[in-house]
Every structure is written in C-alpha cells, then in structure tokens.
Amino acid sequence: MEVLLMSFALPGVSAAFGLAKGAPQATALLTGTFAGMLVGAVFWGWLADRIGRRTVFLITVALSVLFGFLGAVAPSLELLLLLRFLTGFAIGGTLPVDYAMMAEFVPTAWRGRFLVYLESFWAVGTVMVAALAWWLSTRFPPAESWRWLVGAAALPALIGLLARFGIPDSPRSLLVRGDHAGAQAALQRVARVNGKTLPERPLESPAPAPRNTWAALFQGVLARRSVLLGLTWFGLSLGYYGIFSWLPSYLRAQGMDLGMVYRTTLLLALAQLPGYLLAAFLVERAGRRATLTGFLAVSALGVYLFLGAGTPGAVLGASMLLSAALLGAWGALYAYTPELFPTAVRTTGMGFTSAMARVASVVSPSVGAMLLSGQLSLALSVFAVTLAAAAACAWAIGVETRGQHLSEAGQA
Fold first, then answer.
1. Mean pLDDT of the chain
2. Where does the UniProt annotation locate this protein (predicted)?
3. What 8-state DSSP symbol labels residue 334?
4. DSSP codes joined into one string, 349-396
5. Which distant-in-sequence residues (6+ apart) come within 8 Å of 98 by Cβ?
6. 66, 84, 361 from 77: Cα distances, Å
7. Rg (CA), the chain
8. Rounded to two decimals, what is the model's pTM?
C-alpha cells in the first residue's frame, strides 16, 4: 500500500498544491518513496546481518507508521516529499528482512511456495489501496481525499508491528553471529508453539561463513549471481513501476473520470492474484529459475500486446495479462533471491538486489512520464526490452535452488 500510495494520491496532491500535469514536483513525489527505499534497502539489509533480523524487523515498521501518519498532515509539498522519502527509507528495510526471515524459518519442501505467498500480499495491498482511493474519491473532494488515503495506508503497518512482536529472531542468523543461547531459546519457543519438545543436545555449529561486508557479495561464487540478480531486479522493477506508477495518471489524461480510473486499477490488481497462484505452483514443479524466466518473457510479450491493442476490451485484456505476468515474476524472484545467498550475508544480498530495484524505481517515473507526453511506443518499448533482458539474466544465473537446504543453495 505504501509503495504504490503516491500513484493513487497524486491527483489529489496536485489539486491541493496546484501542480500542473507533468510538473517536476509530481515526478519527485513518485520517486521520493523509491529513493528512500533505495537508501533503506542498503542500510537496513546490512544492519540486519550485523545486529539481527528481529531488531530491524521492528524498527523499520515502527518508523514507517510514524512517517506515514505525519505525511497525512503535512502542511507543505516540501515536507510531504521529505516524509515520503523517510517512509520509503523505513519500508526499504522491511523487504530484505521479511523474505530472509521467511526463508530461514520455513522447511525446505514448503519454502518456495511460502515465499511466493508472502509476496502475494503485495496484490492484497494493491487491491486495498485502489479500493480505498476509489471509495474516498466518492466521499471527499480530491484536495482532501489524499490526506485520508495517506493516513489510512499507515494503519496496516501498525497492525503488522503488533504482530511482529510475537516473532522470535531467526535461529539460523543467531547461530551464524555466534549467539548459540539465543538460537536455542528461539527454537525452544518455536517448539513450544508447535506442541513439540526440543531435543536435549547442542546445536550444530554452522560452516564458516563469509564476512558480513558488501565486498563478500562480489567474491567467489557469489559474484556472478549478485550481478545477474541485480540486473534482473533492475529490469523487472523498471518495467513494473514504469507502467503501473503512472497508469492512474495516464488513464486520467485519456479522459477517464477518477472513479473509473480507480475501478480499472482495482481490476488490474485483482488480475495479479492468478499470477501469484501460478508462480507458487510452478516454483515447486518447474523450479525457481524456469518460472522466473518464463514470467519475465511473458511480461515482455504482454507489453507489446498492450501497445498493439486497438479496442478497449483488448487493452483491458492485455493489461490484465501484463499485470498477472509481472506479479508472477515478482513472486518467483522473491522466492529465488534469498536462497542464493548464504545466511551471513542473506539480508545484505537482499538489500543489494532490492536497492537495484529501487534505482530502477527512481528512474522509471521519468521514463513512464513519456506515457503522458504521448510517446507511448517509445516508453513501452523501453520497458519490453528491459523485461526481456531481465529474463536473459535470470536464466544465466544457472543455479536451481528447488529442494535444496539453505546452506546448500547459498553455497552452490
């Protein structure tokens, strides 16, 4: 909800502060959250490998609640931009940590599909923010509704913060950092919740791990996969955000009323769910690598189908296919990436790849702005080429992690 928030709030913000169509401040608002996420992914991902997953897990969500609510009452455009950057800085740290923790807790046989299920809540958030924006647009004028939207989007994070207090730190991460007592206590808590008894024997010490430095991501076996994963994340993010961050404004510029814009966006968000479900099935049947590559290739094709669509029905159909394929690719990528890094640098690696996505997120609104200026073919061609290149990079990684224990997958 927070990541996509400004693309829904922008029409109201523009009305409140008198922004012209395509104004630089509008682009800055769209990129502000992504710029914050770029810095946050780099910082929080590294810190989580140093001080623990749970600490960062709690701090980042608490900050996102604080800055989210403050943004709703921002008295000026400049302060709103700063608060959106700070909100992005906070939530930029949740993504590397969430998926690393999920990967480290869930058994090998279920890990892939559960990581996709976790990512599928992105679609739930998209549906919620689109539905909320639509409903608020019928209750308040645009210059007021955006404040209610920004404030309401911070509420789920508050619920999430309360839920996270019940989650222990990752035993795998605690062991790698030398905290055997903490790992034992975390496992005892997991056993107690599941009605089991933890065996009375010492935990097996992990194999020697690379030092928690950024340089470790570009040494040995990790160097190739870090670069290729970074390019994959960049390409997918550029295509996804370039299209969908500007889509509401693009539809509005084509003469569609605001209510219809939000209803159309809501329909496209619902189309994401089949993409996730198919990805959850395929990552365990066809494997992570093939599933990711296939969804990226279909996404590139979907861009050209959208470009060539000549009727409203064809445009909607191509858009729904594109939405499902892009989110299926995201699901597979979030399942694949944490498995390719060893525990000592897992959130650092997730932070790096997430940062590459945020670089693309910062660039994509400028490319997407070409949609509003009438250069539709050029903008969509850029997105199609980057998605095809991302598919090639995903396949070139050359490692399949399906069915492997994390210690094996991260060192393969």
1. 87
2. Membrane
3. H
4. HHHHHHHHHHHHHHHHHHHHHHHHTT-HHHHHHHHHHHHHHHHHHHHH
5. 57, 118
6. 18, 11, 21
7. 21
8. 0.82
What is the DSSP code (8-state) at residue 113?
H
pLDDT at 283 over 70: yes
Please choose, from the candidates 122, 80, 131, the residue with its C-alpha nearest in 3D space to the C-alpha of residue 98. Answer: 122
- Domain spans of the chain, in order of start: 5-198+213-409
Q: Which residue has the tokens 């040494």?
A: 219
pLDDT at 207: 65
Please give the CATH topology (third level) of the domain spanning 5-198+213-409. Growth Hormone; Chain: A; (1.20.1250)
Q: Assign 364 a pLDDT band (cuts: 50, 70, 90).
A: confident
The pLDDT score that the predictor gives to residue 214 is: 76
Query: Do 306 and 380 form a contact (C-beta atoms < 8 A)?
Result: yes
Provide the pLDDT for residue 30: 79
Other C-beta atoms lying within 10 Å of the C-beta of residue 38: 24
In Å, how far are 56, 63, 71, 164, 170 from 83, measured between CA atoms?
20, 11, 6, 24, 31
